[in-house]
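Researcher: We plan to redesign the surface later, but first we want a full-length starting point. Tokens attached.
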């Protein structure tokens, strides 16, 4: 049986994990914070970890990226996208008016994961501008906290499954600001992932340049450009060594098993760049 580490049951990560592993013999281990998810696989307690890494609205998840690069050395084995549709959750009996409908004025605090909260800011500003916003470790934790603290006027932003698991009402469905909101997830582990077939593959690298000089990044990108290798993402992150010192994360739409990509990497290494391959893996799009 495959052992998979994931953020808490009822979170977007949980739903995304079940989507990827549908029909497979798998057991999920749930952890309240992302550090424990990473460490579960790093310490050999689970085969894989589920890592939310990027969102349509909020962009890259910096904490998760830093853990992937700086704290563990676990290769990426797959990526996939999953819709991130948030809902307002709480006890309707406590938050309704005399007509039995939701009364926004009765909500004094809204809890959620900071990424989920950011996906719903326009909705919150329009309907509940008076409410305190509190960030917690996951959307499912937010729902649980609301469940355990009745009669406070609290509500949570989270998943439908979390509402059902905790016996709370869905006060309003689909409160995400954009309908095309998706989260990109990474599956990390030491074993190659044997999922459904796909003809789309990616390779992710961590690159540090020897020094900063005019045209340095252009020289690196040229190694991919003249080979017509498409880069789907380039992100700079601080090396944590000194101010103004950065490394680059590059997602490449090509498998490392091709002829062109290894030669491109060899070319940028020849000019003094340090390159670490984070993984070469299948990429899955979402199919409802």
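Model: Full-length starting sequence:
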């Amino acid at each position: 049986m495959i052992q998979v580490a994931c953020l808490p049951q009822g979170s977007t990560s949980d739903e995304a994990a079940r989507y990827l592993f549908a029909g497979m013999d798998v057991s999920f281990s749930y952890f309240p914070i992302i550090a424990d998810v990473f460490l579960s696989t790093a310490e050999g307690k689970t085969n894989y970890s589920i890592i939310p890494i990027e969102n349509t609205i909020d962009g890259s998840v910096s904490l998760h990226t830093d853990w992937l690069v700086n704290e563990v050395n676990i290769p990426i084995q797959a990526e996939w996208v999953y819709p991130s549709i948030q809902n307002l959750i709480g006890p309707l009996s406590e938050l309704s008016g005399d007509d039995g409908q939701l009364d926004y004025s009765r909500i004094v605090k809204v809890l959620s994961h900071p990424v989920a909260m950011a996906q719903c800011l326009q909705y919150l500003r329009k309907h509940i501008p008076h409410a305190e916003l509190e960030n917690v470790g996951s959307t499912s934790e937010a729902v649980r906290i609301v469940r355990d603290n009745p009669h406070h006027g609290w509500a949570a932003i989270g998943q439908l499954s979390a509402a059902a698991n905790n016996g709370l009402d869905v006060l309003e469905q689909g409160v995400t600001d954009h309908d095309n909101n998706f989260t990109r997830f990474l599956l990390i582990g030491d074993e190659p992932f044997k999922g459904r077939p796909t003809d789309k593959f990616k390779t992710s690298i961590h690159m540090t340049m020897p020094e900063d000089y005019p045209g340095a990044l252009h020289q690196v990108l040229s190694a991919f450009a003249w080979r017509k290798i498409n880069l789907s993402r380039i992100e700079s992150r601080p090396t944590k060594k000194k101010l103004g010192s950065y490394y680059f994360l590059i997602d490449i739409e090509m498998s490392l098993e091709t002829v062109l990509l290894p030669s491109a990497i060899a070319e940028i290494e020849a000019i003094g760049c340090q390159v670490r391959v984070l993984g070469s893996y299948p990429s899955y799009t979402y199919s409802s």
